[in-house]
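Running this now, will post back.
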Amino acid sequence: MDLNLTGKTAIVTGSSRGVGRDIALTLAKEGANIVLHYNKSEEQAMEVAETINQRYSKCIAVRADLAKEEECRKLIKGGTEEFGDINILVNNAGVWPKNWVSDITIEEWESTFKVNLTSVFLTCQCFIKNLLKKGQQGTILNLTSQAAFHGSTTGHAHYAASKAGVVSFTVSLAREVAKNGINVNALALGIVETDMIGDALKKNRDYYVNRIPIGRVAQTEEIAQIAAFLVSEKAGYMTGATVDATGGMLMR
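Update: finished.
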């Protein structure tokens, strides 16, 4: 399917590895230019950027600590200065700390929210301001989790709460900007084969797999295919929606 992404530019946060990496690669294969965001994984980010530049489209890698307000804004500004118009924003970056509520410090709580929720607000704000100023349309996809709806049973209450905030924020923003031709959706993930959850899967894979009706952990490539559709013109009539890609962990 031709998603009509050739010539468009997408910012993908947390795209040096995992789901973000494959979203960036999939969008590039469809012809989109990529602003590839990373924080600490510079070597991996440069490898992905080189692959995109050599095989598919144009790509720049931008380092930003999304726990810091000024760096969230710097990411959007850097992409705009390089490519001009930015058409797509994918907020994928996130942290998954483990701690029980009785032991979570206020610092850990706040740092989780800064990356998982506040950075989403900040990047979306900068992105829509640019679009509104130019009178342009655009698309936002915010990645969330089944934990936003189910909560956590394994010591990730702060993660679940932050991801629930992403869902509510997505709906609110979608209502505000729909009349301006800006679509805002969310993609709820279940358990995906990534570095973030890698150690947990190694220790107790059966526990996680048994929670998935389909009976297997998702691969990053198949999540990326869904994400690419959601930011394309093919999904242009969708806004304010949270699409479940959880293998049946969410059935609504």
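Residues 106-134 form the longest helix (29 residues). More later if anyone needs it.
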